[in-house]
Amino acid sequence: MFDSLTDRLTSVFSRLKGKGKLSADDVKAGLREIRLALLEADVNYKVVKDLMARVQERAVGEEVLESLTPGQQVVKIVRDELTSLMGGQNAALNLSHHPAVIMLVGLQGSGKTTSAAKLALHLQKGGHKPVLVAADVYRPAAIAQLQTLGDNLEIPVVTGDSSHPLQIASAGVDWAKENLRDVVIIDTAGRLHIDEAMMGELKQIKAAVDPDEILFVADAMTGQEAVNIARTFNDEITFSGVILTKLDGDARGGAALSVNHVTGKSIKFVGMGEKIADLQPFYPERMADRILGMGDVLTLIEQAETQMDKKKAEQLARHIKKNQFTLQDFLEQLEEMRKLGPLSGILDKLPLKKKMKGNVDVDEQELTKTLAVLRSMTIAERLNPSIIGGSRKKRIARGSGTKVRDVNRVLSRFKDSKKAIKALSSRRGGKGRSPIDMLGM
After folding, report:
1. Average pLDDT, consecutive stretches of 10 residues, N- to C-terminus, the chain (441 residues)
2. Closest CA to 256 of 14, 78, 42
3. Contacts of 161 (CB under 8 A, 6+ apart)
4. Which end of the chain has fewer surrounding CB within 10 Å, N or C?
5. What is the residue range of 64's domain?
6. CA dihedral sign of residues 361, 363, 365, 367
């Protein structure tokens, strides 16, 4: 996501920041490159035109040209304008009514059904009691898919006794009131293309259930087409926000940067993976930082706080402080880290991502192989690696589907990490870095 755009913008800003003083021509030349980078990222032409007009007006003024750090001032202006372009700040859901009704709309294949379940899980984690309503009676297996997702999350799914979406949606709201559920999420039917019958049906459901939120679900992979479809949906039924799916894929980012400007409605959530927990609230300022190569450490911290085991982290800190770091600790930390998603996704949220990726091996297969080797060991071997001799290495290799040299590589890295952790702990008063850093993973 945004890799190409980030690389282009980082290159432009590096040149600008490398000059002690900027002329108006320097700034204009840099802005031309930024304009081209945005257009190549599939950002709407009118959006780019308006954005660059605002940036240029500020960037060629006294604020920049007479600044002691003109390059950094240009970066700040672009960051501010990108943040404003994407909505300015996080747009929270309106859940003031009980039950609050959320209606998901969009084309078939955009990820509505999965997004409904992801949103329900997100709200459940926040202390709400959601119910899912399967109002897509046209797509084969859509109701069964939502039921399966609901069962896995232990969230009830209302399917109704009717084959008419309007009656199912109304039944879902009534069920929520009777069973004291505070949020109703209605998965409506999509179509392969926009048609009057679909819009008419959505208008009927909207009039019947009076939703607090209508969220348009768009596939980021479709780029500008997603923005054009969003405009049509908004003109027809006036939605309140957007869920942008598949933003972790090869999307160039145009939809994320264009949809708010075109429709006037904010992106409220983004899908960042296929797992049911991979739905994140959208923060424009954090996304602007990521686009400019500044990382998104706040989101990474929030993920770690919600998904990683705090007790294991505290135990690891104690072991590092006492120089008792073991292969068992290493295994547990790698498993905890896996909860945050692929290594490439973690690096994507860190500052200086491009520079780090040049020095860090992000081969997921290597990490998988390391986990297999560690899991093939016995507890006694992980707690005391010194007992691992030739015969044990062969057994571990057979059990993990690897070679003895792979086992040796894991053990060698572990020894190096212990030395580095000991050195850093003594230098920093016991506050060592993560063993993952030490192992060069």
Report:
1. 75 76 80 86 85 84 63 82 87 90 89 92 93 89 91 91 87 93 92 78 91 91 79 89 80 75 89 84 86 64 60 64 76 76 62 50 74 92 91 93 92 80 58 42 37
2. 42
3. 171
4. C
5. 3-85
6. positive
Strand partners for 270 = 244, 280
List the beta bridge partners of residue 280: 270
Neighbours of 116 (CB within 10 A): 30
Residue 366, domain member (yes or no): yes
- Residues 201 and 71 grouped into a single domain: no
What's phi and psi for 93, nearest 5 deg?
-70, 150
The rounded distance, in Å, linking the Cα atoms of 428 and 132 is 50
- Quick one: three-class SS letters along 313-340? HHHHHHHHHCCCCCHHHHHHHHHHHHCC
| Backbone phi and psi for residue 382, each to the nearest 5 degrees, phi listed first | -70, -30
| 147 and 183 part of one domain | yes
Give ∠ CA 211-215-216 in degrees, rounded to 5.
Answer: 135
Q: Which amino acid is at 149?
A: L
Question: Is residue 199 domain-shared with residue 344, that is, in the same domain?
Answer: no
* Shared-domain flag, residues 205 and 323: no
Q: What is the separation, in whole angstroms, between the first and last Cα of the chain? A: 22
CATH code, 113: 3.40.50.300
Asked if residue 257 and residue 116 are part of one domain, the reply reads: yes
Displacement of CA 74 from its chain's centroid (Å): 27
Q: Are residues 135 and 21 in the same domain?
A: no
Whether residue 211 is contained in a domain is answered as yes
- Using the structure block, give the residue that is written with the tokens 């295994």: 331
pTM over 0.70: no
255 and 141 within one domain: yes
| Final residue of a structural domain among 261, 292, 323 | 292
CATH number at residue 423: 1.10.260.30
What is the tens place of the pLDDT at every residue in 251-282? 566 777 888 888 889 999 988 878 888 888 98
For the chain, what is the domain count?
Answer: 3
Tens digits of residue pLDDT in 359-371 = 454 567 788 888 8
Let me know whether 196 and 344 are in one domain: no
Q: What are phi and psi of 153, to 5 degrees?
A: -95, -5
- Half-sphere CA count of 11, side-chain side, radius 13 A: 10
Q: How far is it, in rounded angstroms, from Cα 126 to Cα 219?
A: 25
